[in-house]
Structure formats: structure tokens, C-alpha cells
Write a structure and sequence with these properties.
This protein is an alpha/beta fold. The chain contains 36 helices and 26 strands. A hairpin with a 2-residue loop joins strand 24 and strand 25.
Length: 888
């Protein structure tokens, strides 16, 4: 525990650093309804609010770097020379960030000729001399040199407060040796040279033995090998680096401590700015339930419930289910809030809490919930329907879902479109969510323990928000041409997904346990071999320790550096695997660890004891392309390419006496690309059922198709899919393990042979620049703000999205249409068969053996004819006693 400093507190904020951290921490699609980027402004405001609330400073300053050069640039012209220019999207937010600081009347400091570090260092010295304590708000390790008895460095993003002990633990040296540590190891971010080959651990070891940089240089003759040579050759670089990293604590400042007092904040002025920026969650009263002008209350009797139901009328009624816990798959229903006007709502307490009306109330509520003629709206109907299915209620009459509507209007802007985020976007205010009424941490309550006079208005204000939002969203759907997609695709899909969530898929706990044990044993064996090659045991999962073993102890060549040291990423290890066996073993150990931690263990823990099945969540509003996403657990990541991955699929089995069916579209995205581009060579190959990857390889290597070998076919396959994902020569070269020039040759030859593909891509990207969006086959839109960016990298990313989304998004459309048609046929023919999962281009079903032929015929027919394309769709279908067997 950090010792308490009983002095007046001065808070010094590294404003320049905080701006950049905010910019990269908050998604770039964070913007106002008028298109103003606000990710940096919002992140800065959020951190600023946290600082003010947590530390309650009486004195302080936000310090920014001043434009122009400093004394460090004069000493070393290459200092910070490699830093990229400020992104234009960040630059246009600087005036707003300045307003955020000014509206809080917080002093700001910017001094020409000095960096923010020097200004903070000088103010820190002055504050200590005046008997104050200092909190430096930054994550920059340079400030560690200032930490002492009355100085702390606070990383607000990670909630870490550094004192001298924590500095020693993190960097291996006390604060007074930080400048010498940085002088030896350098700083890639600031282009401080340091001594090549000496990392943090090596530098800390030298300083522990010799005290400081001078001591190290005086004892170079005692050292050996590469370390000695490096210090002999780069002693001057080390001395220069020490000057560059030393913070000047005697800068000439145009102000004194007396200018740093912080007055009381004008909350109304702050709220006015935050409303202008649409930061509704930061408003002073953003987490309170507004009830002053509202009629929110609980139904306290069965007669009152009857009266409520009789008064609902003909217009859409919003409802919101409250469950315990707040998981609709595994939750227990506590009550239902109903609202037929934005200022009016009633909460029906059903089970478990104060005033619960029990089964009798559910019996009376059920007919209304199941009435197809009673129009209803909700947020995330899928999960609420899944919950109601547990109580024997088959929800009908849903005409609107504010989550699905928000997604169809702009899939990316409010992703994943939770209620509170959509409310901010369309009502321009924040809602009080679960933690407001339940609390958090050890004092967190359950809904059933909340007093009814608090729970009822809270639940009603959520239902009322849905009621208020729906007309706005309904109008936007019409403007965007998405009403049909909501009614005919998204809402029916929501109903199907609810049943799929309820039904789940059976998993064999015994198989998962046995696999987990086997993988653990194999992993332990590989780890022992790694330790033997390394000469000692270490934490293989630690990037820092692994880097030291590979690049310092074993002397392997350094392939890539990161901000914190040497990279040990998979691509680096793959390149080094031929140099040393240990890299091959580390890759194998990582693969086994992933199988254990991501699959066997997670899947075993996900099995519901009552059903023996895994009930994952199936989401329509998380994948911006429109692809369904599975979570809790993510079954879409179940591996298929390795033998071990296939064995995991053996754990997925049908119910007793039934069979499992797997149906998989063949090359669906390439077929959609062909439909869009109308390239004659591709159309002919798919029409005649030619191996498209072999054909592409024959075009690239200029050989006959029957002469294409396995390597060439793999190149053809990789280039085919690289087209869809917009890969350039560099990425393709890395994927194939070939030079960039050779990869570029493949891409050029591909577009020479498939000229209409190039023409379609160019036309699609050009149209996207004009329209600002692209569309799928069913007209779903994805807006691409990156296309208007002044940053080349962002624009290039936007163009890749523009090329890929019509293909991936249309594949998602086709898959959903097929799923709905199959489900409709199952019900029309009164089959027991159940659709269980959608995994990428594959659908999984289970059925009794007596229905096998009929089910396979329906599935294959609907998957191949769900939508009319100019090339045929082909589906591979199989069945078996497990998922693995059905895929064989």
C-alpha cells in the first residue's frame, strides 16, 4: 500500500501524451451526429474527469509541448525525427480539447524551447520546495526519474500509481538511476540511440554492479563479448542519450506556483460543452434516473395488471425484461417493464423480488406477449425472447428492435449497439444502467434485493427510452431504405437465433476432459525441451523473459523491435525456426496452450449442467459486415485445419439416437465476387465446376491446369482470397513467405487475367468515395468515414473495406436468407430437426435418423437456391455421430 502524503496536492498533467493516448484508445468512428471526430476529445475528457474526481487537486496544470525546436534538437538533430506527423483527425480536435481544459478553469502551460517534460519537472521542483506533494499524470517512463518521497507518477488508463518501490519493480532500478538506464537502453519512441544490444535487463544489471553510467564506462574492461564491444563503440552515444533523457528542472517559466490554483468548476458550463460534443455519458446527472416529469411505478396487484393490459391500446408498446443475472440465456426473470409513452411506464414484478406477483401474473401477461396483433418494440429482442422461452412464452407481435434498427442504419458507428449507446446517439442523453441500481464490487446487489420503489422506475425508464427512440429509428430506417431488411431479415432472424440459443449444441465433457489432459501432458513435455535448450527455466508466456532468452542468452538475430523491446510474435518465431529448434518448440507450446485455454477448458466450463449443452450467444449487431458472431463461448474460432483442432470437434455430438449434419458452402465469397464482377473466366470456371484455385494457379504460373503442383495451387488459393480482403504485395509476400516483388508480380498477373475483377473493384471504390458507403446484395449499407480521411493509411483501409464489404456482407445476407428458408421448411413439414449453429460458411443441424434424408435434401436445396446468382452455389453436406465425423 502506498504511504499517504499529508500535504497540499499539485497535479501536473502531461497533456500532449494524454491527447495521443486518448486518440488511440477510443475507436476512430467516435463522432458527433454531424460527423465531427471526437474520439480524442472524449477520451481526454474522460481521463480529465477521472483525474479531477479521484484526486481533487487544489493546484495543478495541464502541460503541452510547444511548437518549435528545443535544446535537445540542437544537441541531436535526429531526436524524435522519426515520429509521424499528427493525424489530421486528431489535429482538428485540438481546439475542442483546449475548450475542455478551459471550461474547467484548469491552468494550461506551454513554453517555447522546452518540452512538456521539462516544464513539469520544473514545476515539480518548485512544488516540493514549497512543501507540496506532486502527482504527475503520465505513463512516460522518463518521469520515473522525478519520483520520490512526495512525488508519484500516475497512469490513469491502467490505474497504476508509481512510487520508488514500483519503479524498481517495473524497470529494475530506483528512480535516481532511471536516466542512466535510459542512456544505456535508449528509447526507440524518441529516437534516443542508447547502446545497441543492451536492453532493460542488461542495463539494470550493469547499474546494479557499477552504480551509474560513469561507473559502467569506467569498468568496460571488466565486461565481455558483445556487451563490452557495444559499450566501447557507443560510449559517446550513451553519454549523449543521458543528456537527452534528463529532464531539465530549472526551465525558465512565465508563471509560478501561485498561478496554478484551481477554482470551483462551473458544472453548467461543462455540461453545455459536453452536450455540444454529444458526450452525454459525462453530463453531471448522466447516471440518475429522471423521474421528476415521468409517471413510472410498479404494478402491485393482479387487478392492476389486468387494468394495465386493457389500457395498452393499438400503438407499439415498448417492453424490457429484467433478469437475474443480466444474462438472458441463463437468467431468471425478475420482472417486465412496459411503456406506451416516453414519460409513462409500469413495472410488473414477477419472480423473486419485493412485490413479486408470481405465476398468476405471468399467466395473465403471457397472452399479450404471444399476441401477434399486439405490436411491441424492445432493445435486443433476441435475448429477451430467449429468456421468455424458458417460461413457456413464445413472444410474437414484435414490430421493432432498436438495436437491430441502429445496426441497419449504420452498423459501425454505435457497435455493438447496446441500449445506453443507442440512447446517447438518438436521445442525446445517457441512461442509468445496471451498476447505477445494483452498485459494483463487493457491495453489488441482485435485482431481487433492490427495493421495488427503486427498481420499478429504473426498469420503466429503460422501456420508456425504447418507446421514445423507436419512432426516430423507424423514420431513419425508411430514409436509409432499410425497413424491408428489418422486417423480412433481421427480425425473423432474431426469432430464429432465440431458439438456437435456447437449444444449444450438445458437448461431450468426457472427450473435452481427456483432450485437455492430453494437451497438458504434451505441453509440459514441450516446455521441458524448451528449458533444456535455454539452459534454465523461465516464464515462456512472458514476452520480456522470452526475448532475453532468445536474443541475449542464445544470441539469435533480432528480426523486429517493439516499443518495449524485442518482438517474439509468431511471424518472428517462424522466421527464426530454421535458425534454432527452440523457436519451433515455442510455436508448438503456444499452439497447445491455445488449445487448452481457448478451447478444451473454455468449452468444458461452458457446458450447462442441466442440459449438457453449450448455449452460446448469437449476435447480429457485432460483426459490421453482417456476419453472425458467436460469443460465450466463441464457437466460430473452433479450429479445423490442424489434426488437434479436428479432434476438438469430436466433442460436439447430437442428442442420444440422433445424427448431426454439417452443410458448408463451397467458395461462397469467390462466387459472389464473380456475380458482381461478371468476369468471364471466373463465370466459366464456376459454371463448369472447375477447381478455381488450380485455374488461378495455372494463370499465374502459365502452365496447364493439370500441371499445377501443390505449391502452385496454394499460391493460387492465397491470391484468390487476397483479392477479396484487399491484401497488398507486402502482406501477400509475408503470407506466402516470398519477396514483395514476387508477390506483386502475382497480383499484377491476377488482374491481367481477371480484368473485370479489377474493373469492378475500381468502380466499387470510386462509387464509395462519392456515396460514402457500399451496399450488399440486399441493399444493407456500410458507411466508411475513413474514405474522407486526410491520412493515407486510413483512406487505404477504407478502400479495402469498400472492396470487401459487398462480398462479405452479401455472403452474410445469403446465409441468413437460407437459414430462414430452411427453418420455415422444417416447421411447415413439422420436422423435429433443429438448426444449432452457423459457423462461417457452415450450418450445423441435428435430427432423428428417420428425417435424415428429408433434412439433407431441404438444407442442400435452400442453401444452393436461397438467392439467385449468376453462378451456381455448391454445398458440401455430410452427417455423422459428431461434428468431426459429419465434416469428413
Amino acid at each position: 500500500m502506498l504511504p499517504r502524503m499529508a500535504r497540499e496536492r499539485v497535479v501536473l498533467i502531461d497533456g500532449s501524451s494524454m491527447i495521443y493516448r486518448a486518440f488511440f484508445a477510443i475507436p476512430s468512428n467516435f463522432q458527433t451526429s454531424h460527423g465531427l471526430p471526437t474520439n480524442a476529445s472524449y477520451g481526454f475528457a474522460l481521463m480529465f474527469r477521472k483525474i479531477l474526481a479521484g484526486r481533487k487537486p487544489t493546484m495543478g496544470a495541464v502541460v503541452f509541448d510547444a511548437p518549435g525546436k528545443t535544446f535537445r534538437d540542437e544537441k541531436y538533430p535526429e531526436y524524435k525525427a522519426q515520429r509521424p506527423r499528427m493525424p489530421s483527425e486528431l489535429k482538428q480536435q485540438l481546439p475542442w480539447i483546449d475548450r475542455v481544459v478551459k471550461v474547467h478553469d484548469f491552468p494550461t502551460v506551454k513554453v517555447e524551447g522546452y518540452e512538456a517534460d521539462d516544464v513539469i519537472g520544473t514545476l515539480c521542483r518548485q512544488a516540493l520546495e514549497a512543501g507540496h506533494e506532486v502527482h504527475i499524470i503520465s505513463a512516460d517512463k522518463d518521469f520515473a526519474q522525478l519520483i520520490g518521497e512526495h512525488v508519484r507518477m500516475v497512469d490513469t488508463m491502467r490505474d497504476i500509481t508509481y512510487d520508488a518501490a514500483l519503479v524498481k519493480k517495473k524497470w529494475g532500478v530506483p528512480p535516481e538511476q532511471i536516466v542512466d538506464l535510459l542512456a544505456l537502453m535508449g528509447d526507440k519512441v524518441d529516437n534516443v540511440p542508447g547502446v545497441p544490444g543492451i536492453g532493460q535487463k542488461g542495463a539494470a544489471g550493469l547499474l546494479e554492479k557499477y552504480g551509474d553510467l560513469t561507473g559502467v564506462l569506467e569498468h568496460v574492461e571488466e565486461l565481455k563479448g558483445r556487451q563490452k564491444k557495444a559499450l566501447e563503440e557507443h560510449a559517446d552515444d550513451a553519454k549523449l542519450s543521458r543528456e537527452l533523457v534528463t529532464i531539465d528542472q530549472h526551465a525558465e517559466l512565465p508563471l509560478s506556483l501561485n498561478d496554478l490554483s484551481i477554482p470551483d468548476v462551473d458544472a453548467e458550463a461543462v455540461d453545455a460543452l459536453y452536450r455540444e460534443l454529444e458526450f452525454f455519458s459525462l453530463l453531471a446527472k448522466s447516471d440518475e434516473v429522471e423521474t421528476e416529469d415521468s409517471d413510472f411505478s410498479a404494478v402491485t396487484s393482479l387487478d392492476g395488471l389486468e387494468k394495465l393490459l386493457n389500457e395498452l391500446g393499438d400503438g407499439p408498446v415498448a417492453f424490457h425484461c429484467v433478469s437475474e443475472p443480466a444474462s438472458f440465456v441463463r437468467g431468471e426473470l425478475v420482472g417486465v417493464a412496459i411503456s406506451r409513452a416516453p414519460d409513462r411506464g409500469r413495472f410488473i414484478p414477477l419472480f423473486g423480488g419485493e412485490g413479486a406477483l408470481g405465476d398468476d401474473a405471468m399467466t395473465r401477461l403471457k397472452p399479450w406477449l404471444e399476441d401477434e396483433t399486439a405490436p411491441k418494440v424492445a432493445h435486443d429482442v433476441r435475448d429477451q425472447r430467449t429468456l421468455l422461452l424458458k417460461y413457456g412464452v413464445n413472444l410474437q407481435g414484435v414490430v421493432g428492435d432498436t438495436q437491430l434498427a441502429s445496426f441497419l442504419i449504420d452498423p459501425e458507428k454505435l457497435i455493438p449497439h447496446p441500449l445506453e449507446q443507442v440512447a446517447r446517439g438518438y436521445l442525446h442523453r445517457s441512461l442509468a444502467m445496471e451498476k447505477t441500481i445494483l452498485g459494483s464490487g463487493k457491495k453489488q446487489k441482485r435485482f431481487r434485493d433492490v427495493a421495488l420503489d427503486a427498481l420499478a422506475p429504473w426498469a420503466c425508464h429503460l422501456a420508456a427510452a425504447v418507446q421514445e427512440m423507436w419512432p426516430k429509428l423507424e423514420a431513419r430506417l425508411e430514409e436509409e431504405g432499410q425497413t424491408k431488411n428489418l422486417r423480412e431479415l433481421a427480425l425473423p432472424m432474431s426469432e430464429l437465433l432465440s431458439r438456437m440459443q435456447r437449444d444449444g449444441i450438445r458437448a461431450d465433457a468426457g472427450v473435452l476432459t481427456a483432450l485437455g489432459q492430453e494437451f497438458e501432458a504434451r505441453k509440459a513435455d514441450v516446455e521441458q525441451r524448451i528449458y533444456a535448450l535455454a539452459g534454465k527455466e523461465f516464464n515462456i508466456a512472458s514476452t520480456k523473459q522470452l526475448a532475453e532468452i532468445l536474443f541475449e542468452d542464445l544470441g539469435l538475430p533480432i528480426i523486429k523491435r517493439t516499443k518495449t523491446g524485442y518482438s517474439t510474435a509468431a511471424d518472428v518465431l517462424e522466421r527464426l525456426a530454421q535458425e534454432h529448434e527452440i523457436c519451433q518448440l515455442i510455436l508448438r507450446q503456444r499452439a497447445l496452450a491455445k488449445l487448452i485455454n481457448t478451447y478444451t477448458r473454455v468449452l468444458f466450463e461452458a457446458i450447462e449442467p442441466d442440459t449438457g449443452r453449450i448455449h452460446c450467444t448469437l449476435q447480429q449487431t457485432t460483426g459490421v459486415s453482417g456476419r453472425l458472431i458467436t460469443t460465450d463461448p466463441d464457437l466460430q474460432r473452433t479450429p479445423i485445419r490442424t489434426d488437434d483442432g479436428k479432434r476438438i470437434r469430436e466433442a460436439f455430438i447430437p442428442r442420444d439416437g440422433w445424427v448431426l449434419i454439417s452443410a458448408d458452402w463451397s467458395q461462397i465469397e469467390l462466387r459472389i465476387l464473380t456475380h458482381f464482377s461478371q468476369d468471364p473466366l471466373l463465370v466459366e470456371s464456376f459454371t463448369e465446376d472447375v477447381d478455381i484455385h488450380r485455374l488461378t494457379a495455372s494463370q499465374l504460373f502459365e502452365v496447364a491446369p493439370d500441371e499445377v503442383d501443390a505449391f502452385q495451387r496454394n499460391v493460387g488459393k492465397t491470391v484468390n482470397f487476397a483479392t477479396i480482403y484487399g491484401q497488398g504485395a507486402t502482406a501477400l509476400g509475408q503470407q506466402l513467405g516470398i519477396p514483395r516483388k514476387e508477390a506483386k508480380g502475382y497480383i499484377d498477373r491476377y488482374f491481367e487475367r481477371y480484368a473485370k475483377v479489377r474493373a469492378w473493384l475500381d468502380r466499387t471504390i470510386a462509387d464509395a468515395h462519392v456515396d460514402g458507403y457500399v451496399e450488399t446484395l440486399l441493399g444493407r449499407r456500410r458507411y466508411i468515414p475513413q474514405l474522407s480521411s486526410n491520412n493515407f493509411t486510413d483512406r487505404a483501409y477504407g478502400e479495402r473495406i469498400a472492396a470487401n464489404t459487398p462480398i462479405q456482407g452479401s455472403a452474410a445476407d445469403l446465409c441468413k436468407v437460407a437459414m430462414l428458408q430452411i427453418d420455415r421448411r422444417f416447421r411447415e413439414e413439422q420436422l423435429e430437426a433443429v438448426m444449432m449453429l452457423q459457423i462461417h460458411d457452415e450450418l450445423l443441424f441435428e435430427c432423428p435418423p428417420s428425417e435424415l434424408d428429408a433434412v439433407k435434401a431441404i438444407v442442400k436445396d435452400r442453401m444452393e437456391h436461397a438467392m439467385k446468382l449468376d453462378v451456381p452455389l455448391v454445398v458440401d453436406i455430410g452427417h455423422g455421430a459428431s461434428w468431426a465425423e459429419a465434416k469428413e
